[in-house]
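Bench log, entry 3. Co-assembly request; chain sequences pasted below exactly as received.
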Amino acid sequence: MNREVSDELLNAFADNELDGAEKAELLEQIAADERLRAKVCETWHLKELVRSAHPLVGKPGGRRKPDRWRMFGLPLAACLLLMVGAGSGWLAHEQYDESWIPGAELRTIQAKGGRVVLHLVSGEPIEIDKALRKAEQLASARDREGGILQVELVANGTGIRMLQSGNAQLAARVATIRARHHNLKLIACNEAMNRMRERGVEVTLLPEVDVVPSAIEEIATRLNQGWRYLQV
Amino acid sequence: MDLLKFIGRTRQFEQRLGESRPRLWRLAHAWCRNRALADDLVQDALAKGLRNHAQLRDEESLHAWLCGILAHCWHDHLRAHRPMEDVTEMDEAVLVADGSPETEYLQSEIVRRVRQAVAELPVAQREVVTLVDLEEFSYAEVAAILEIPIGTVMSRLSRARSALKERLRDQNACGLAAPRIARVK
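Structure output for the full assembly:
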């Protein structure tokens, strides 16, 4: 059922204020309407611009460089996802705030082939932590026949930070998880890395990481193959 | 023993107040665009928070509670003075250079324009958009902090974002031009 979508409602969607049913209904409309998708993307981008233009300083009067990837990369990645999602009908996923995948979702994954692609777009430490926890949880789970799940953790936008060398503690954690779970694949988006390099950011990935040309294409491919999609 | 517990709790509370300070300052500065005033508002809000600790019902919502106090301090200031629009004070936009001069210039210019656009919003819209986008409060939390209905939060936010998009799109420098994001019919 199509209804007029107000700016207030689109804002509520962009701010993750809608509940499951409302969100699902609006997602259907957004998926079918390029104009609405553009509006949501613009709002996401605006939110990141506002946030990046007002960085948190350690103490009043201090200076800090705004996070340029947050400013450009993340909202753009989210917008691209929205575009791809609209085309392939996989947008009706839930976004979980907790660092643990709810039982119902896990049961759905187990019942539907046990293959799941987990997507990280944020480089915030708390989001990286959530992504790794969820990946471990999924990689440790079993499907209905007792087989292990196939899990891909795909990072783009600032989420690439999770897979970069340079943070010894994070690198050790990633290496441990990867060594423990051979059914978990860590994937970095080459497009995102190129964008980082264009901005003068040096990108060196951890040895456990695979690179795909585009995170969006990888996710779309997996979805077409029947994988379940979850965004961190 | 009770006295020791009380002192311990007070110290812990003071520490948590201190942890909120940078976020409160960022918010105050986004509202008033004046460093000295932002310092004063935050100081005032923290002092009131410390004095009225007993009124805090849920320790988990300490930051939202402090933001509410800060909003009161800010509104008191607005009532007592003409709104200060010291939007010339944009010195934080001068960034640490680590890229090409062109990139650095573009970055600092975008930051300056976004801040300017936020600063030019009417006060009520500026408060809502900063509480939602900087502090990531839910609409219900913003409504409680500013003591306004949720519907008002939504309409102010909508107007604020429309105005920001309009201004930044006009300047065509912040990636809000339609082709960068999506093709718009």
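The CA atoms of residues 49 and 66 of chain B lie 7 Å apart. DSSP finds eight helices and no strands in chain B.
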